[in-house]
Design brief:
By secondary structure, the chain is an alpha+beta fold. The protein contains 5 helices and 12 strands. The strands form 2 sheets. A 7-stranded mixed sheet has the order 1-2-3-7-6-5-4, sandwiched between helices. A 5-stranded antiparallel sheet has the order 11-10-9-8-12, with no helix packed on it. Strand 5 and strand 6 form a beta hairpin. Helix 2 packs across helix 4. The protein binds biotin (BTN).
Length: 271
């Protein structure tokens, strides 16, 4: 635990009809000294950003596109764990909204939330070390597909994505109560993180781990492909893979996909 007590987060909420990216705007505000807990919410993003330089398709008014400026009272080295902390918060939020389908929610390391293998939400955490005139901060950007119908997704991801509406058949009563609820869940999880309860949050995360025990391929940032069985993230947030020779690999980042099992080649069969 860092420091002696937990303060309530009380930053302002900035609302935009349209913006380039809520993460970019939150970063600009943080660099100008925005308080811990500041929230940036937009109905539409012209260049919503995903992990590894990908785009986050942000159909206007269909989803929740939110970024939080956080200055958690933990060591800066531990900021790397915030994606997992936020993952638990978003999972709790979605479970509440999904009701009887809550058990279908899974977390795919490091930042995806899935319902039966389809992506419903993503997290983009971007930390900034102490800089000229500002204390360290981390921007936690969260995108959740809410009202999307199938045709609201770009065609290349349409079969891989889902939304609250597609899962429940019900349209939530507006985005604002969802923003408030998401904010509350995130604040609770970050407060637990600051209280030294990361092990409990990690245990909850692991209980929803989509990849655990599955054979996966990881395309590392350097382009190298590592194949192995996923063993889940450890307490530093790093994912472990065990390859067929029993060797363990640490995965710090990179794109993960389930390895496609090739059928065994029969003796004498042309390959
Ligand atoms: C991912 O799945 O790769 C992360 C997606 C994060 C998207 C959210 S939407 C709100 C915030 N603003 C951004 O530009 N990105 C994040």
């Amino acid at each position: 635990m860092y420091g002696g007590y937990i303060m309530k987060r009380k930053g302002r909420l900035f609302f935009y009809q349209q913006i380039d990216s809520t993460n970019l705007q939150a970063k600009r505000l943080a660099e100008q000294g925005a308080q811990d807990g500041t929230v940036v919410w937009a109905l539409d993003q012209r260049c919503g950003r995903g992990r590894l330089g990908k785009k986050w398709a942000s159909a206007a008014g269909r989803g929740v596109y939110l970024s939080f400026v956080l200055r958690p009272r933990v060591d800066f080295a531990d900021y790397a764990r915030i994606t997992l902390v936020a993952g638990v918060a978003v999972a709790r939020f979605l479970k509440k909204e999904l009701g009887e389908s809550a058990e279908k929610i899974a977390l795919k390391w490091p930042n995806d939330l899935l319902v039966e293998g389809k992506k419903i939400a993503g997290i983009l955490a971007e930390a900034a070390a102490p800089g000229a005139g500002y204390t360290p901060f981390v921007i936690v950007g969260i995108g959740v597909n809410i009202f999307h119908e199938r045709e609201d997704f770009p065609t290349d991801i349409s079969s891989l994505a889902t939304s609250l509406f597609l899962e429940t058949g019900k349209k939530p009563q507006g985005l604002q109560p969802l923003v408030r609820s998401l904010q509350q869940h995130l604040h609770n999880c970050v407060a637990d993180f600051e209280r030294g309860l990361f092990p409990q949050l990690l245990a909850e995360w692991r209980g929803m781990d989509y990849l655990y025990g599955k054979k996966i391929e990881c395309v590392a940032v350097d382009g190298r492909v590592v194949t192995g069985v996923a063993l889940g993230p450890d307490e530093t947030g790093v994912l472990f893979l065990e390859d067929s020779s029993g060797c363990r690999h640490e995965i710090l980042s990179g794109d993960l996909r389930l390895a496609i099992e090739k059928p065994p080649v029969k003796q004498g069969q042309d390959s």
